[in-house]
Amino acid sequence: MVEGVSLSTLATCGKNRLYGSSSFWRAPFKPFKKSQMTSLNDRHWVWNQSVQRLFLTGDPYRSRNSDSKVEAGWMFSGGEKGLDASVERSENANETILIFFFQLDLATRVQYALNMEEYDIAQELRNKLTEVEAEIIKQQDAKRGLSSKSEAQDKALQMISLQSELQNAIKSEDYALAAKLRDQISKLEAESLAASAKALAYENVQYAFRLGQKVKHRKFGYRAVICGMDPVCCESSSWMETAQVKKLSRGSTQPFYQVLVDVHADPNILVAYVPEENLLAPDQPDKDSFDHPYISFLFYGMDTAGDFIPIRQLREKYNQPRHEVPPNDEDDGGKA
């Protein structure tokens, strides 16, 4: 995974365009090395530095509303005893958004270089963009894990082969080998079942929420905006253990959403990874202001119902259609 990509060169320009000095790309690209982030604290430091640069310089709306004291954040408490909102904070989701920003910025720089007829620079940028896109594909493949059909089919073929070996071992009265093969078959059966379940979830997923929709956390009460979604939980086993995913009524095979948390609620979370059952749509249109350093990068603005309009690249990333607010939405209370 691309780690610690600095966003110091990114800034907002007009309607959600990204720009930066072209001289930055004349120098060799040197992202943070893994050796520079050997601990979790180091990774959070890199992340926080990037966020601060965006937060202080990248969002003109934030600068006009500098009275909000983001440094005085507090954690929501509630729900299960001993849990607070920080358990759903996701570093993986943070990094996914960083790389998405980087991809957008590179694409914009390529076009700018072509417009300026700087073809050598454009080619160099294209090469970097290809590397980033390849990394994104790796991320997506890693997320799917055992969810693909081919993976489930491979497990089934392995079981057929092992069952044949088991029969031969029994015929030859090699019971030690037979016992070992039985254990392998049992393990493969469990893995195959899990793979089939995840593959089915990817094929038949139906999301209750959409990109840009404002939501409220059922347990912790904070306001958030949907900026990404997965058919199943794609976090690590350690994250799922901390977040107590096994205790959820729908478990890990329900949709999970990347959400931007309003910084007035808690600036230390920023991006959370939340199961569908923990989110609620507001009863009435939420047209109140929503502050987050990524809003101007990922969305065009709010629609008449108070939700955010995702940029085209974000819709394409998650293969989601554009949501159209009904013409009479303002008259009937904004329920869509």
TrEMBL record:
Residues 115-142 form a coiled coil. GO terms for molecular function: DNA binding; peptidase activity. Residues 206-310 form the Hemimethylated DNA-binding domain. Keywords: Coiled coil, Hydrolase, Protease. SUPFAM superfamilies: YccV-like (SSF141255). Pfam families: UVR (PF02151), YccV-like (PF08755). InterPro entries: Clp_protease_adapter_ClpF, Hemimethylated_DNA-bd_dom, Hemimethylated_DNA-bd_sf, UVR_dom. Residues 327-336 have a biased composition (Acidic residues). Residues 317-326 have a biased composition (Basic and acidic residues). This is Clp protease adapter protein ClpF, chloroplastic. It comes from Senna tora.
